[in-house]
Amino acid sequence: QVQLVESGGGLVQAGGSLRLSCAASGRTFASFAMGWFRQAPGKEREFVASINWNGGSTYYADSVKGRFTISRDNAKNTMYLQMSNLKPEDTAVYYCAVDLHYGGASYASPNIQDYTYWGQGTQVTVSS
Fold first, then answer.
1. What is the pairing mode between strands 58-60 and 46-51?
2. Residue 114, exposed/middle/buried by CB under 10 A (0-12, 13-18, 19+)?
3. Where is average pLDDT lowest: 6-15, 40-49, 97-106, 118-127?
4. Distance (Å, rounded) from C-alpha 36 to C-alpha 9?
5. Which residues pair with 18 in a beta bridge?
6. DSSP string, 6-71
């Protein structure tokens, strides 16, 4: 059974840092793009960052560019999101997901509808 499990969320003060992890089990996703999304209370889920299968291409939402870094370790079947200089508006539940449409490609979609498998999410709260 395919499972994605996020971890590393928590409460942090503005300006602080957190590192999220997304561990996959049940099958390997080494050939597929993966992404991070977030959903704040009362808002729609939005794109945060995505990474192609070998980490050679990364994409970021404008709101996090320069502050967040996405990476992956295919040997560990794990993806990461290093978040720095956090702001209160980064408060949300963060989800990781796998896109099965672009196997072996240099592209990693920012579109929610392209992602097949989703984790349960991890809460990130940034206090001012």
1. antiparallel
2. middle
3. 97-106
4. 13
5. 83
6. EE--EEEETT--EEEEEEEESS--TTSEEEEEEE-TTS--EEEEEE-TTSS-EEE-TTTTTTEEEE
Percent of the chain with pLDDT over 90: 88
3-state secondary structure 80-126: EEEECCCCHHHCEEEEEEEECCCCCCCCCCCCHHHCCEECCCEEEEE
Residue 88: phi and psi, rounded to 5, are: -55, -30
pLDDT confidence bin for 4, thresholds 50/70/90: very high
Burial of 4 (0-12, 13-18, 19+ CB in 10 A): buried
